[in-house]
Description:
By secondary structure, the protein is α/β, with parallel strands linked by helices. 31% of the residues lie in helices and 21% in strands. β7 (184-189), α6 (197-209) and β8 (214-219) form a beta-alpha-beta unit.
Amino acid sequence: MCFDLDSAPPxxxxxxxxxxxxxxxLRAADGNSFRAFHAWPAETTGKAVVILPDVRGLHxxxxxxxxxxxxxxxxxxxxxxxxxxxxxxxxxDGFDYGPHVAQTTWAGLSVDIAxxxxxxxxxxxxxxxxxxxxxxxxxxNAFLSATLGLGMAGVVGFYGFPGxxxxxxxxxxxxxxxxxxxxxxxxxxxxxxxxxxxxxxxxREALTSAGLDNEIVVEPDAPHSFFDRKQAEFQRQSDDAWxxxxxxxxxxxxx
Length: 255
């Protein structure tokens, strides 16, 4: 297992931040209904992010992460992947996500991501700059969301597999860089046995060759899913990664 079930985002809450949140059900263009969690600041900055989870789907970790984004002024919507196969009910830590991950398709994920983008832009909160961020499977999905024609301001992938086959039929991001339409921030672990540094470098070179603004970061000595873990030994890398995310959103978001 590459994460701790009771882990929380490695980001300290901002005391006194005026944030609201709610759980909801969204409907994609193909008729699929899926769970989501929405968090937003009392005063909008015009920036919003769709959070794409790892294989757990809409785990509480990602609800907390949405709140951390809202605390820094970025409206956030974390979505679930498994409405088509697992329904809309709450699922505990014992949820067997494997069979459901295998039944996802890139076509289905694409319309769900598009549905999330439509929701944020139609909420009347003044969203001018929309980002995606994702983790592991969601990191790959975040990279690929840059190809969906959604007018993204930027995409952020944490240890998303940039090459090779995915857990479903999703293309390899490195193979579709010419279809990407926005800046890319990729955050990887230098001690990630699953994603070789050579593959990360190939992804960086492919993005640059395609003329895409990109920042590809390799956090020293960090394993796969270091941002999802609760061990304090990776706090330095997590702090750096979170700072880079904030800078990326600030740099590429409309003022």
